[in-house]
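User: Second chain of the day. Same drill as before.
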Amino acid sequence: MAYWFENPTLKALAPLALSTSIKGLTTIINIPTLFIGSNVFPEGPVVGPSTMDTLANRCAKKKAFIVTDEFSNKYAAKAARFLQAGGFTVETWPHCLPEAPMEVVAECAKAMKACEPDLIVAVGGGSVMDSAKAAWVLYERPDITELGLISPLDKLNLRKKALLAAVPTTSGTGSECTGAAVVHDTAAHRKIPLAHVELVPDFAILVPEFTLSMPPKLTAGTGLDVLAHAMDAVTTPAANEITEPLALKAIEMTFHWLPRAYKNGQDREARHRMILAASIGGIAFGMSGCHLTHSFGHSLGAVFNLHHGMSVGFFLPQTLQFCSRVTDKHLLICRTLGLESKNPEEGLIQLVAKVRSFLTQLGVPLTLKDLGISRADFDSKFDTLVKFAHEDVDCYLSPRPITAAQCAQVFRYAYDGRDIDF
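Assistant: Same format as last time:
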């Protein structure tokens, strides 16, 4: 099938839309109502306004449909008890799978239609939130049969049936604050991005304690997703005066707090700061978009079945080096991290070295070979790897346009860990 991001008109208009004159015509800032802290799902008496006041005032039917998976089901149960105590009827659907396969999304939408809720609550990591968003579209719009055809320019007219609340149990995707979702077309072995302003959840409920059970490897992977979102949000030409400071703050917080959360998953302060960093980064890239870390990472993750955050984080050095030919905005990141440099070239060297050291600290290999990808496997899937990366929608937002040949060269260099010199 053809996907919305393959539309030649959209590809042609993307550079124009990023020009200063066009970009300044209209800026839409759409973020959810945020509830943050350990007591957003209170199980006893509450003094003053509460989460429930807001939800109940917006949902007349008080019928909730919770979307979750087997790992987050215990947190979904707490959300269900809270909703039931507030007078909601609750149905829980705990069948989400990693990477949000399209067929699972369709099953979720089918269950949603049978329930007829006016509040959908996604409790889980990025795949759960993405599955809930996609299923919500199918619930609201039964006339839509192909998610991959939904363009950011379409009018979806959501919220006629239900509102959406997102409760993350990881600290990475920022999906609770964005209009983005990624589903997996398993038949085509391809990640399909959805991007639409109407997909921004109505409520984002951040409970740091829900992230305490993440193991170190998942903590590292989700945290690197935060870093990739934020670094891309700084360097993309779609950045603006609102997104830049948010993205820089997310970068600062990730470098400071992620190693602590990685070393000690029960460090509540580190968990609190990282769930905030994920949402702050989500708000930033939700307005400005990501670029090449995600183009390369989406392809790598889809072709070799690797964790999304680990995949996009892996390509931070290569992306910084490739884009430095046309922008010096990496110096903003240098200043945020306390790296003093005399010129952009020196700043790039220092920043790439710091990022590589950070990756090593989190147990992430610096070459595709050390990720466990054999040369034979790499060579046999190379053309698909390049095709998926070059056709990825996030290429549209790169500060430096990239050709298929350059994509191929980046992957070749990444296999052995060579610096990008072109």
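The first strand starts at residue 33 and ends at 36.

User: Great, on to the next one.
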